Automatic annotation (TrEMBL), chains A, B:
Function in brief: Catalyzes the complex heterocyclic radical-mediated conversion of 6-carboxy-5,6,7,8-tetrahydropterin (CPH4) to 7-carboxy-7-deazaguanine (CDG), a step common to the biosynthetic pathways of all 7-deazapurine-containing compounds.
Enzyme kind, highest EC tier: lyase
Encoding gene, per UniProt annotation: queE
UniProt remark on cofactor binding: Binds 1 S-adenosyl-L-methionine per subunit.
The protein's required cofactors: Mg(2+); S-adenosyl-L-methionine; [4Fe-4S] cluster
Chain positions recorded as S-adenosyl-L-methionine binding sites: 39-41, 82, 125-127
Descriptive protein name: 7-carboxy-7-deazaguanine synthase
NCBIfam families in the record: Bsubt_queE
Subunit structure: Homodimer.
UniProt record similarity statement: Belongs to the radical SAM superfamily. 7-carboxy-7-deazaguanine synthase family.
Swiss-Prot/TrEMBL catalytic activity: 6-carboxy-5,6,7,8-tetrahydropterin + H(+) = 7-carboxy-7-carbaguanine + NH4(+)
Gene Ontology molecular function: any one: S-adenosyl-L-methionine binding
UniProt entry tagged with the keyword DNA repair: no
InterPro entries on file: 7-CO-7-deazaguanine_synth-like (IPR024924), Aldolase_TIM (IPR013785), Deazaguanine_synth (IPR017742), rSAM (IPR007197), rSAM_sf (IPR058240)
Length: 236, 236
């Protein structure tokens, strides 16, 4: 059994963003990331300063925990992080699929893995300039290639400012066949500080207004519902 | 050309709810409805007291208006109401499809129409007990039958209270193959009164918590984003 490095497993809750927004989901959040986005909202799964909080678990222990949380009722399991593409989920997906569970994975598209091809949903979220990272499009294309056979492949881009927005448009033009989801960036990532829902609405409106002013009717524009519901609290 | 009775045509904006949440959309809201839901949020398109505000337009005038609003850029056109299934959208859909537009229709499922089969998305939203209406499931089944060939058929149920919730579960059991979307009901429908986003979040949380407490992982649970963004203002 593969070993997996896990920051947290939690749920069921609803998926708060993107293509599966509203979908009942158990999250398997892996520890470790090849990126260091300036505005990362999951540093506890990224920064090696938190490494001692990550559990090294055999795949069957992860699968037991997913079944315990969902009480054996099949639902969507979201592999997130950190960057889950660092690790090997082949066995977890096989165990879950055998029981009717579905698997989504969210990754920036920097590392391709063969198990992308058996996912139900692959969300590739290339990071815009405000992240401080630079996308390697060759690696991104390798992810698309590896995902051939996946149920659905979509692209999600977080937009913090006008520069990110222009970058998102150019990225969309590169991949006209990928369904595109935009979401406004969230700088209020402290789990201890309550989020103002009006602020969330205002940022969404800003992004909706931009796409409409440009007659850019390609992306679906969505908020982070989990932030509306729970602020930046962990484990929901 | 068919004549259409139109309450309003507006957009582009984003679809605020259901399967196409976040999708850039022009809304064609028809006038007239065979239902009188107690909590209707679109009485101006339902109550015959507003009948003099509805325009009778030939289909090509509706199509011209959709093109003008979208500046000729293809997007999703949502046929809503009232109950759009009272009318004949065959020609509008054909005109739009020829230019790459997509068509979604939202109806309670009380009247079946042949043009359901050429829709890209049919949203059937049977009304729960709190509406004061009673669903005719024979008519609902006829809608499903008429929609054979449509791109996607989904069910959406608004839930105001525990009785509605139990009813939604039973309806879902009847149609296990229909993707299901639940949304909390909205009683604050006065366009003049500002909506409290925290209240919207609280109602969503109530519904999310219910489905999860019951290990009912079938429906996607979503809010009305347009209410978060614009309250109950019309034309957005």
């Amino acid at each position: 059994m593969s070993q997996l490095r896990i920051a947290e497993i939690f749920g069921p809750t609803i998926q708060g963003e993107g293509a599966l927004i509203g979908e009942p989901t158990v999250f398997v959040r892996t520890g470790g990331c090849d990126y260091r986005c300036t505005w990362c909202d999951s540093l506890h799964a990224v920064d090696t300063a938190y490494r001692q909080t990550w559990a090294v678990m055999p795949t069957d222990a992860v699968w037991q925990e997913v079944q315990r949380l969902s009480k054996g009722n099949p639902l969507t399991v979201s592999l997130s992080g950190g960057n889950p593409a660092i690790q090997d989920f082949t066995q977890l997906i096989a165990l879950g699929h055998a029981k009717g569970y579905r698997f989504a994975c969210e990754t920036q598209g920097s590392i391709a893995k063969p198990w992308f091809s058996v996912l139900d949903t692959l969300v590739l979220s290339p990071k815009p300039p405000s992240s401080g990272e630079t996308v390697d499009w060759t690696a991104f294309n390798a992810c698309l290639q590896a995902a051939t056979g996946a149920g659905k492949i979509v692209m999600k881009i977080v937009v913090f400012d006008d520069t990110d927005y222009a970058w998102a448009r150019a990225a969309a033009d590169k991949y006209p066949d990928l369904p595109l989801y935009l979401q406004p960036g969230n700088l209020e990532v402290d789990p201890e500080i309550a989020v103002d829902p009006q602020n969330l609405a205002d940022k969404l409106l800003w992004l909706v207004d931009k796409t409409i002013a440009d007659n850019w009717f390609v992306p679906r524009v969505l908020p982070q519902l989990h932030v509306l519901l729970w602020g930046n609290k962990r484990g929901v």
